[in-house]
Amino acid sequence: QVQLEESGGGLVQAGGSLRLSCAASGRTFNMYTTAWFRQAPGKEREFVAAISWGGGSTNYADSVKGRFTISRDIFTRRLYLQMSSLKPEDTAAYYCASKSSAGLTTIQATYDSWGQGTQVTVSS
């Protein structure tokens, strides 16, 4: 099993930037794909971005394309989400996830390890 722990959330004004980090531990050799999801109050959890752990290929939700950048450091086993030009609608709890299969899928049910989440609040 892979353990994931997010950090870096907080309160930021609209137009600002924030970088989230996710530390991976445990059976990290099982990580083929890692991703960020988010869940706003009263809404379903939604896909944000994914990256292949080995090759670095990426996939983004249309709502964050051009504003967010997902990256990973395979040596420190950390996943990052650089968020820029933040909007109030980006306010949500952000979760990192990993799966032991290839494919930059947006479907959360395919991910088998999850962190506890970190809150991002964007004020207008």
List keywords for this structure.
124 residues; mainly beta; 7-stranded mixed sheet; 4-stranded antiparallel sheet; globular
Helix/strand order, N-terminal first: EEEEEEEEEEE
Mass-distribution shape: globular
What profile does the largest beta sheet have? Answer: 7 strands, mixed
Instruction: Compute the separation of the termini in Å.
Output: 40 Å
The proportion of residues in beta strands is over 45%
Report on this structure.
The N and C termini lie far apart (40 Å). The chain has no helices and eleven strands. The model has no long low-confidence stretch (mean pLDDT 95). By secondary structure, the chain is mainly β. A hairpin with a 5-residue loop joins β5 and β6 (58-60). The strands form two sheets. Strands 2, 4, 5, 6, 9, 10 and 11 form a seven-stranded mixed sheet that branches. Strands 1-3-8-7 form a four-stranded antiparallel sheet, with no helix packed on it. It has strands at residues 2-7, 10-13, 18-26, 33-39, 46-52, 58-60, 68-73, 78-83, 92-99, 113-114, 118-123. It is globular and about 40 Å long.
